[in-house]
Amino acid sequence: MAVQNRKRKAVTYTARRRSNSKTRRITIIVFAVAALILIAFNAIKNIKDKAQYLTPSILGASASEEYIYTGKGLLYFSGNNLIYNDFKDKELDYSYPANSDAIKVGASEDIACVYSGNNIQILGAYGQSISVAQDIKSAKCSSKYVAALTENAIYIYNNRAELIETIDLTNVTLLSYGFSDGVFYTLFLDTTSSLPQTKLTTRDLDKQSTTGIMSISAQLVDKLAFSSKSTFAICTNEMIMYNKSQNSVISKTRIYGWKLVDTYMDTTKPKLVFRSEEDEKNGVYNLIRYYTITEAEQAEQVKVNVNLYRVPSGTTDVFVLNDNLYAFAGNDIYILSLSDDKKSHIFKKWKTLTVPVEEVEKVSDNVVIITSGNSLYYIEFK
Questions:
Q1: Which of 73, 132, 148, 337 has the fewest C-beta atoms lying within 10 Å of its C-beta?
Q2: Residue 279 gets which letter from DSSP?
Q3: Which 8-state DSSP code applies to residue 1?
């Protein structure tokens, strides 16, 4: 009997050993699987974390140097040289000697000019620098022309440095001038009448002809914006839309109390962003008005759609870039998608920049330049 009991105990002990061994194997497998899951989770998390960060491309110019965006790259002074850095094709980079600290620059995608005192030179054009009667205040370039502003006149040259037109400023007050979509425009303030009147004139320089004259009374023009079909005058009380082909007012929208902060005209539907005058005075953003315009030849077919959006706390800049709204708040960039298939009513965090952000400048419809300390960076939105 005792022998049988010992056998039962031995069998029971062996069974327990086998059971414990099996349990340990299962435990080891469970821990191994858990470890693999944890490793995979951390790997995915690291990928996601990295995806949340954006390192902008550094530029050769420093923040303390004068620079201008040409549409394809950056033109800037460094030491005794005028340097061009193309964003995509380094074979297009070049350098010109520029020994004067007083030299300034104007540029477009196709033309660049340098000016100092009463002299201006169009880079790449034959001949020496051009002298005008007075010191040049500023210069602007289009794809074919250069306009130089002095105290009493605007001188317009072609890309061969030939003077093609002079606009007398002796008895007028110039508010703005420049090029847009192949057209040269001037904005004058007439103070001779009882009420202030602003006159906007557009000219086709290829044909040497005036294409439009628009007068605005009883309110000041704050800013101008141009699409391929329309001219927008952003005034004290109204946003006035002119049809280019008919040279006539086609739409008026009341915007009193709101200030234009950005436009996006490279689209079939022009887009404009406003913030309140109070926010502008305080240098903050709370709410923005976002206008989408459907252009048409007839006034009754024009559609002006407006939405009100609240921006993230700490926002310092709001831009329309590549057809989306972006809000910049410190190092964080938020996005509000505007495409038809991704409509949203709130800003969502898009990226966090890996460099400290001091200033953001929109230089085209899809490029911003970031100032960080004395360094410059750029981001291209695609």
A1: 337
A2: H
A3: -
258: β partners: 276
Tell me the residue type at 185: Y
**C-alpha closest to that of 197 among 210, 214, 211:** 214
**Which of 280, 338, 268 has its CA nearest to residue 309?**
338
Please name which of 225, 344, 231 lies closest in space to residue 274, comparing C-alpha atoms: 225
Give the C-alpha separation, 183 to 242, whole Å: 15
Question: Are the C-beta atoms of residues 227 and 265 closer than 8 Å to each other?
Answer: yes
Residue 341 has pLDDT above 80, yes or no: no
d(CA 113, CA 229): 29
CA-closest candidate to residue 184, choices 168, 161, 205: 205
Bridge pairing between strands 153-158 and 81-86: unpaired
Burial of 123 (0-12, 13-18, 19+ CB in 10 A): middle
Check residue 252 and give left, alpha or beta (phi > 0: left; psi -120 to 50: alpha).
beta
At residue 101 the predicted structure's pLDDT band, cuts being 50, 70 and 90, is low
**What's the pLDDT at 370?**
97
Q: The tokens of 374 are what? A: 């004395």
For the stretch 209-268, pLDDT in tens is: 998 899 998 888 999 999 989 999 999 999 999 998 888 999 999 999 999 999 999 777
Sign of the CA dihedral 127, 133, 139, 140? Answer: negative
Q: Say if CB 290 and CB 275 are below 8 A apart.
A: no
pTM for the full model?
0.82
Other beta carbons less than 10 A from residue 10's beta carbon: 10
Half-sphere exposure of 110 (CA within 13 A, CB side): 10
Q: Quick check: helix, strand or coil at residue 247?
A: coil
**Cβ of 261: how many Cβ atoms within 10 Å?**
20
Q: Compute φ and ψ for 128, nearest 5 degrees.
A: -85, -175
Structure tokens of 358? 């001091």
Residue 15 in 3-state DSSP? Answer: helix
The pair phi, psi for residue 208, each rounded to 5°, is 55, 45
By three-state DSSP, how is residue 12 classified?
helix
SS3 63: coil
Maximal CA-CA distance, the chain? 131
β-pairing, 145-149 with 153-158? antiparallel
